Amino acid sequence: MNYEITNPDPSSLIEALRALGYNLPTAIADIVDNSITAQAKNIKINFHWAGKDSSISILDDGVGMSETELSDAMRPGSRNPLDQRERSDLGRFGLGLKTASFSQCRKLCVASKTAGGCLCVRSWDLDYVTQTKEWRLRKEPTLAAEKILGELSGENSWTLVVWNDLDRLVGNVSAHDPGAQSKFLYAADHVIEHLALTFHRFLENRVLSILINKRELKPWNPFMETHDFTYQTPEERIPLGNSEVLFKGFILPHKDHLSSEEYDLNGGPRGWNGEQGFFIYRNRRLLIHGDWLRLGSPNPLRREEQFKLARIRLDLTNSTDSEWQLDVKKSTARPPSIIRERLTDLAAAIRSQARGVFAHRGQYGPKSEPQTLERPWSPRKRNGQHVYLIDRAHPMVNGLMKKFNSAKPEIESLLRFLEETVPVQQIWLDTAEQVQGQGIPYDGVDFENLRADMRILFEYLVQSGINAESARQRLRAMEPWNRYRDLIGDL
Ligand SMILES: Nc1ncnc2c1ncn2[C@@H]1O[C@H](COP(=O)(O)OP(=O)(O)OP(=O)(O)O)[C@@H](O)[C@H]1O
Ligand SMILES: [Mg+2]
């Protein structure tokens, strides 16, 4: 075979790797991924301000690395992305440690120790690599790392990552530059916010503790799972290849049910409007938040005020990374085409419920209510086909039959006629074409008609022998009157 070897030029490749598009929070999250994969229970992140000599360090108490493992880990492309990984592994590309670090600093030092093993150290100095035009991995710590290493001891295992020469965040500034210092501290606040969300499921179970500048990081759970007025759908399992995706919808409480403190706290990093939609987790680590994923065609689901209470949790495993087109930064993923339609249908249902809560000022009631509502229509199967039948025991039907007992066969005939001609196909087409267009019952109908219908039903209920208060109670748990609670009070 006729060939020549063309090794990539280190300085050009380094600059390309630095431009992958990380920011400080996503870069630190990538380092934390490695600590979690290494079974760390405690992670300490420190932002040390010293002007141009400032540094950021991440220390974990995971299993650590032997010297050969560390050398390998420092190599860009240390593992093949096609390799099968442990189920709990948060990595994929064998790049994160290097790409995340290089995006923020010119000097990276990693020191590690396994239980009972020796301390080993490796450092990348990008200026040295550029100068020598060789990938020379240094076997000594950087100055910044040396200071921290002096304070570490003990038999246990740990790994320390130190970044300095933070040319993008800090640059060549004096330690006494107040503007530069507050920018540094402000960046730390962003990191806190990002990690509190990205790793909230680890932090919640107390499986993991993260200290940032000695302050314990508190998890931020976007679903308000413990609030009485949060409505949660049952978990749906969507098969995908040899694995599956778990889908769970949450309708968050209306503002009327929240204190102003709860309201501010639960809006999240981008606020209520910005945090609607999907939250995608891979092995319980958040990849994407508040995004409708361009689902829905030809009318994509859009971010709109009326859907701001809808949040959806999607759980992926690490065995479907290629289907989701996971990227190195772990901040994008695209739903595989095979499940897009199913996701769109499920998301549309959550959106329509969220809009109901939003439009009626939270009068959809506490979390269990939407499931136990009394409804006039009941979907059934007949000879394998879907049919939609009117419940004969519904007080509206039952009351009418009793009142006009002699016309019972004709009323029965009318109901059957309506049931047999439900324009299912048409409804299906209309909703598929215009996902957001599902109307709310009685929206746009004259208020007097609404009141009149409600009153007829109320009278049937009272005629059936129950008292007025019980009749009102029953109406409150009945579709669609549950949406008009204020009017029920006037009956
Ligand atoms: N804190 C740590 N403790 C123990 N081992 C680590 C630690 N950080 C990195 N490693 C080792 O270094 C390897 C390379 O890490 P790197 O982040 O570059 O790639 P990755 O995690 O395998 O994949 P990805 O590019 O998706 O992050 C890891 O696979 C792991 O074996
Ligand atoms: Mg990694």
Secondary structure layout plus pairing:
Elements: H1 10-18, H2 24-37, E1 42-48, E2 55-60, H3 67-74, H4 96-104, E3 107-113, E4 120-125, H5 126-132, H6 143-149, E5 158-164, H7 178-198, H8 200-204, E6 209-212, E7 215-216, E8 231-232, E9 236-240, E10 243-251, H9 260-267, H10 271-274, E11 277-282, E12 285-291, E13 310-316, H11 337-359, H12 369-372, E14 377-382, E15 385-390, H13 395-403, H14 408-420, H15 424-433, H16 447-463, H17 468-476, H18 485-489
Parallel strand pairs: 1-6, 11-13
Antiparallel strand pairs: 1-2, 2-5, 3-4, 3-5, 6-7, 8-10, 9-10, 10-13, 11-12, 14-15
Helix pairs in contact: 2-4, 2-7, 13-16, 16-17
Adenosine-5'-triphosphate is lined by residues 30, 33-35, 38, 60, 62-65, 73, 78-79, 91-98, 159, 328.
Description:
The chain has 491 residues and is α+β, with helices and mostly antiparallel strands. It has three domains: 10-216, Histidine kinase-like ATPase, C-terminal domain (Heat Shock Protein 90); 231-366, Ribosomal Protein S5, domain 2 (2-Layer Sandwich); 373-489, no CATH class. 37% of the residues lie in helices and 18% in strands. It has helices at 10-18, 24-37, 67-74, 96-104, 126-132, 143-149, 178-198, 200-204, 260-267, 271-274, 337-359, 369-372, 395-403, 408-420, 424-433, 447-463, 468-476, 485-489; strands spanning 42-48, 55-60, 107-113, 120-125, 158-164, 209-212, 215-216, 231-232, 236-240, 243-251, 277-282, 285-291, 310-316, 377-382, 385-390. Strand 9 and strand 10 (243-251) form a beta hairpin. The longest helix is centred in the last third of the chain and has 23 residues, at 337-359. The chain is elongated, with a radius of gyration of 30 Å. The structure holds adenosine-5'-triphosphate and magnesium ion (MG). The site of magnesium ion has 6 residues, from helix 2 and helix 4.
